[in-house]
Amino acid sequence: MSRIVLAYSGGLDTSVLLKKLIIAGNEVVAMTADLGESDARAGQGAAAELEAVRQKALALGAYDAVVIDARERFMNEYVLPALAANALYEGVYPLSAALSRPLIAALLVETARRFHADTVAHGCTGKGNDQVRIELAVRALNPSLTVRAPLRETPLSRPDAIAYAAEHGVPVAHSAAKPYSVDANLWGRSIEAGVLEDPWAEPPEDAFAWTAAPAKRPREPDEVVIHFEEGMPSLSGVRGAVLVAQVNALAGAHGVGRIDLIEDRVIGVKSREVYEAPAATVLIAAHKALERITLTRDELRFKAVADQRYAELAYDGLWMSPLRGALDAFNGAFSRRITGDVRMRLYQGSAATAGVRSPYALYDEALATYGEGDAFDHHAAGGFIRCYGLPLDRVARLSLAVKA
Length: 404
Ligand code: ARG
Known about the structure:
Blueprint: E1 3-7, H1 12-23, E2 27-34, H2 37-40, H3 46-59, E3 64-69, H4 71-84, H5 96-114, E4 119-121, H6 130-141, E5 146-148, H7 150-153, H8 158-167, E6 181-185, E7 188-192, E8 222-229, E9 232-234, H9 240-253, E10 258-264, E11 270-276, H10 278-294, H11 297-315, H12 322-332, E12 340-347, E13 350-357, H13 365-368, H14 378-388, H15 390-397
Parallel strand pairs: 1-2, 1-4, 2-3, 4-5
Antiparallel strand pairs: 6-7, 7-11, 8-9, 8-12, 10-11, 12-13
């Protein structure tokens, strides 16, 4: 018998797992993290929903059950650093699930300390990325803890889970019959399984919950001005997790942020993943637009390479690695210049940059203009090209040039 802290969502799998661990004689503390999933669904009573999850764990016989409101922590320690890195895995996925797992791991470790538990457990299967992310983060934070993944040791099919639940008095919500596997937090919602496993099949409308179907989108565009102050985004003065919830609602109404990716998982398989991430899509696009006007060409080129590496680290479960910390410091070097406004136009599934301005803009209209007041020294360009082309000149004289 040991005391175990279990990452508990309140869903069928983790409820069955909770019951099994209790029946095996363990004292189980159910830990549920509030990462803003409910706020993103407009108008839901998040607090009441999460209290129901806590009560469910207690009713199942948990030694104790805690709900931790980690929304602002998720925003400050995970989402904002990822935004500074324009983090998109394989160019498109804003890493919503990937960013949440190291935080869930940190909360497991902290809860284990609080309850003097020597073991933490999660309900991931052996097939996904999340087991890797949680276990590597726990290792990095407290290598002496034991991590258990009971659903990896003994896989649980959906019919088995439902049968076990019926037998042991675990309430089964209506949604247990749902056709998809869904994970969500304020940075995005991921939808997997069911008909989506056929990569030729277009995701049906019922896969989506945060983004409006084409026929239901407004006929007119909406424009939002995202303000950045040293890398921190805001909309009409609203920041943090609340800002993200607002942008999710605004952009989601226009169908912005649907992503359909044949994705490369850490464990080696390709899978078809569908996401809805309206706010992440808008904020990363706005952030990139501001960088384009405030950073030098060299900085942009080098940062693009670093940004891709950053997304890979987050995806691959290496969030707690020293390289991620070093890249945060690198990105911090730009933050002062990430100040300004970006006008985003939301319309029929797209979020387009309509305008950008910054007190730190390197863009100089007098140098760029083709009209009146051109301050650029055209003559200087001739000398520049002569020097710049010297190697080609030599190559041509030796008849080594690549022929057209
Ligand atoms: N494929 C995405 C990722 O690896 C989403 C994972 C969602 N997790 C889940 N347990 N449904 O980040």
